[in-house]
Design goal:
The complex is a heterodimer of chains A (395) and B (183).
Chain A lengths: L12 E4 L7 H7 L5 E4 L2 H5 L3 H10 L6 E3 L8 H13 L4 E6 L1 H16 L9 E2 L9 E5 L11 E6 L4 E6 L7 E4 L9 H20 L5 H23 L4 H21 L3 H13 L3 H32 L1 H6 L5 H20 L5 H4 L7 H8 L14 H10 L3
Parallel strand pairs in A: 1-9, 2-3, 2-4, 4-6, 5-8, 6-9
Antiparallel strand pairs in A: 7-8
Helix pairs in contact in A: 4-5, 6-7, 6-8, 6-10, 7-8, 7-10, 9-10, 9-14, 10-12, 10-15, 14-15
Chain B lengths: L4 H31 L1 H7 L7 E6 L5 E6 L5 E5 L8 E5 L2 H8 L5 H6 L3 E4 L2 H18 L2 H7 L9 H19 L8
Parallel strand pairs in B: 1-4
Antiparallel strand pairs in B: 1-2, 2-3, 4-5
Helix pairs in contact in B: 1-2, 1-3, 1-5, 1-7, 5-6
Classes of the chains: A alpha/beta (395), B alpha+beta (183).
C-alpha cells in the first residue's frame, strides 16, 4: 500500500487549546485586519457561541464590522451573494467563519466573491480557477467532524440550476483555524457522536486509500488514537473540556489527513445516501464504515490491522494475532457504534434511521458509482458490489 | 547547458508514443461503444454532443471524443468543434507516458495527482470506468492487470478475445479511412 510518490500541503496555522479564541485579534492584526465580518448561522447565535468570539475581539482591540448569522444548513449562491453585498456595504476587510461545514464553506465562497469581484460565483467553480490569494480568512469550527477548517474545498448549491458547485483551490484555506474547546462544549450528544464518526471515517479512509502517504498517515493515526481514547468519555461527560479539545483536534488532524490523501468508498456511499435520503453526513459515515472496510478487507488487511493499535491501544493490539488484527479493528468500530447507539441512539443500520426506504437502495448504489471518492477505493466497485454493500447496511 | 541529441530524441519518442496511443485509444473508444453493451450503458448517461478530451499539459498530444447519442462515442481527432465538457489533463508528458505505457495504473495516477479533471466529476468517474474497460479488452491480460485496479472477474477469455478482435478490426478500418459511421 505504500506510495512511491505523494504530495502534501497544509499551510493553515492551527491555534488550539484553552483561550485559543483570544489569539484571534493578534492574528488579525498581523494581517492588518481592521474590519472583520463574521459569517455564522442562527443556531450558533442561539447557542451563545457568538458572544465569546465578540468578547475576545472587543477585548483584543478589533471591532467586528458586520455579522451575517443566517447561513442555512445547505448554503446557496444567493446566500453567498448576500454576504458579499453586506461585506462591501460595511467596508469589511476579512471574514471569520464560525460554525460547522456549511458556515465554513459559505465563508470560503464569500471570500472568493469579495476578493475576486463580481457576483457570479459560478465562474470560479472548479479546480485551480483561482490564481491568486484571497482576503484574510479565519475559521472557528463549532463541530468536531468536518475538518473543513483545513480543507481547500467548498461546495455551494446553485438553487436556480439545481446543481452543487464545487470550488477547489489552496487559496480557500484559511489563514488560521482556531480550535477552542468552548466552541464544542455544548454540542448535543447525537451530533457529538455523528461528527466524531465523520472524523474517524476521514482518518480511516485516508489511512487505507490509494492516495495514502507517510505524512497523511501520521495525522490519520493520531486522529484515530484521540477518537478511540476520548469519544466515549465525552459522551459520558459532555462538559469534559479536555476531551472536547482532543476530539476537535482529532477532527482537524483527520481533515489534514484526508485533504492530502482523499476519502473513499464510505464517502461515495455516504454522499449518495445524503443526496437521496437527506441523512446527516456523519450518520452516513457511521453507517457504512464497517461494511466498506469489510468490502475492501483483502486489499487493506495490513494498514487496517495497524489501525487496531491506534483505536484500541497497545494491549489489545499485542494480544491479537497479526492475522486477526484487521477483523478486530472492524469489530472495534462496530463495538464503538453499539456504544454510541446505547448512549444517543446513533443508528447502526439504514433501517434504524427511519429515513431510508429499502426501495431506495438501488438508486443509492447507482449514484455512489459516480462519486469521485470511489476512485480511491482500494478495490474496484461495480454496481452489483455497491448494491450488495448497501443491502448489508440495511439491517 | 547544451541539450544533448539523445535527450531530444527521447523526448520526441515519448511524445510520439503518447500521441500514437491517444490516436489508438480514441478510435478504440469509438469501436468499443459499437460492440460492447456494458461500455455503451456507461456512455449512454452522457448528454448527446458531450465532448471529452484527454490532454497533456501544457501543449502535448490531445484526444477528443464526442458522445453522439445512444451511448455511441465518435473519435474527433485532436480538435474540438466547440467547448469541451470534460477534460482529463496530464500535468506532464512523463505522467501521460507512465499511464499509457502501463507503468502506472489510471487510478494510481489520479491518486498521485498526475492528472487534473476539468468538468463534472461524475462524468470523469464514468469515463474512467469506460477507459478501464477498454484497457481490459484491448490489452493482453498481463498488461491489463498493470493498467486497471482489478481485472474484472466476469470477463472471460472468449468474450475478451472476441471483443478485442472486433475492436481492433474497427480501429484498423477507421485508421485506413473506410468507416466513419456517424458522419
Amino acid at each position: 500500500m505504500s506510495s512511491r510518490f505523494f504530495e502534501f500541503f497544509c499551510p493553515v496555522k492551527v491555534i488550539a487549546g484553552k483561550a485559543a479564541l483570544e489569539h484571534l485579534p493578534w492574528e488579525m492584526q498581523g494581517l492588518s485586519v481592521k474590519r472583520p465580518m463574521i459569517v455564522t448561522d442562527k443556531g450558533i447565535h442561539q447557542a451563545g457561541l457568538l458572544e465569546p468570539v465578540l468578547a475576545a475581539c472587543r477585548e483584543g482591540g478589533v471591532q467586528i464590522a458586520a455579522i451575517f448569522d443566517d447561513v442555512p444548513p445547505d448554503s446557496s449562491t444567493s446566500v453567498v451573494r448576500e454576504i458579499a453585498t453586506l461585506y462591501r456595504d460595511k467596508h469589511c476587510d476579512a471574514i471569520i467563519a464560525l460554525g460547522g461545514g456549511s458556515a465554513i464553506d459559505t465563508g470560503k465562497a464569500a471570500n472568493i466573491l469579495v476578493s475576486m469581484g463580481g457576483d457570479d460565483l459560478e465562474q470560479y467553480s472548479g479546480a485551480g480557477i483561482l490564481k491568486h490569494p484571497l482576503r484574510p480568512f479565519f475559521v472557528i469550527p463549532t463541530t468536531a467532524g468536518t475538518g473543513s477548517e483545513v480543507t481547500s474545498v467548498a461546495v455551494i448549491s446553485d438553487e436556480q440550476r439545481g446543481v452543487k458547485l464545487p470550488f477547489t483551490s489552496s487559496f480557500l484555506l484559511p489563514d488560521a483555524a482556531i480550535i477552542d474547546p468552548r466552541m464544542t462544549l455544548t454540542l448535543p450528544p447525537h451530533i457529538t457522536a455523528a461528527t466524531a464518526m465523520d472524523a474517524l471515517t476521514h482518518a480511516t479512509e485516508a489511512f487505507i486509500g490509494l492516495a495514502k502517504n507517510p505524512l497523511s498517515d501520521a495525522y490519520a493515526t493520531a486522529a484515530i488514537q484521540k477518537i478511540g481514547q476520548w469519544l466515549l468519555p465525552v459522551m459520558n461527560d459532555p462538559k469534559n473540556e479536555e476531551g472536547r479539545l482532543e476530539l476537535a483536534l482529532a477532527s482537524t488532524m483527520a481533515g489534514i489527513a484526508f485533504s492530502n490523501s482523499m476519502v473513499g468508498l464510505v464517502h461515495a456511499l455516504g454522499h449518495a445516501t445524503g443526496a437521496k435520503c437527506h441523512l446527516p453526513h456523519g450518520v452516513c459515515m457511521s453507517l457504512y464504515l464497517p461494511y466498506a472496510l469489510e468490502y475492501n478487507l483483502e486489499y487493506i488487511r495490513e494498514p487496517l490491522g495497524e489501525l487496531l493499535l491506534h483505536l484500541e491501544g497497545p494491549e489489545r493490539y499485542t494480544q491479537t494475532p497479526p492475522e486477526q488484527r484487521a477483523e478486530s479493528c472492524i469489530a472495534a468500530i462496530r463495538a464503538l457504534r453499539d456504544q454510541l447507539h446505547q448512549r444517543c441512539g446513533l443508528p447502526r443500520t439504514l433501517e434504524e434511521t427511519g429515513q431510508v426506504e429499502f426501495s431506495q437502495l438501488e438508486a443509492i448504489a447507482q449514484l455512489a458509482l459516480d462519486d469521485g471518492a470511489i476512485l480511491f477505493s482500494p478495490q474496484e466497485v461495480s454496481f452489483e458490489d455497491a448494491h450488495a454493500l448497501v443491502r448489508r447496511a440495511w439491517s | 547547458m547544451e541539450i544533448r541529441p539523445f535527450q531530444t530524441l527521447t523526448l520526441r519518442a515519448r511524445r510520439f508514443y503518447v500521441g500514437a496511443m491517444f490516436q489508438v485509444m480514441g478510435r478504440a473508444l469509438q469501436a468499443m461503444t459499437e460492440v460492447d453493451g456494458e461500455a455503451c450503458r456507461e456512455t449512454r448517461q452522457l448528454p448527446p454532443g458531450f465532448l471529452f478530451e484527454m490532454r497533456v499539459l501544457p501543449s502535448g498530444p490531445v484526444m477528443v471524443v464526442e458522445h453522439t447519442k445512444d451511448g455511441r462515442l465518435r473519435f474527433l481527432g485532436t480538435d474540438a468543434p466547440r467547448p469541451i465538457n470534460l477534460s482529463i489533463q496530464f500535468k506532464h508528458m512523463v505522467h501521460a507516458f507512465r499511464v499509457v505505457s502501463f507503468q502506472e495504473k489510471t487510478a494510481i495516477a489520479f491518486a498521485n495527482e498526475r492528472m487534473l479533471v476539468d468538468g463534472d466529476i461524475a462524468y470523469a468517474v464514468r469515463m474512467t470506468r469506460v477507459l478501464n474497460r477498454l484497457e481490459t479488452f484491448i490489452l493482453p491480460r498481463f498488461l491489463a492487470v498493470r493498467a486497471v485496479k482489478q481485472y474484472p472477474r466476469s470477463l472471460g477469455f472468449v468474450e475478451k478475445t472476441a471483443g478485442a478482435a472486433r475492436i481492433y478490426l474497427r480501429v484498423l478500418r477507421n485508421l485506413i479511412g473506410n468507416e466513419r459511421p456517424y458522419e
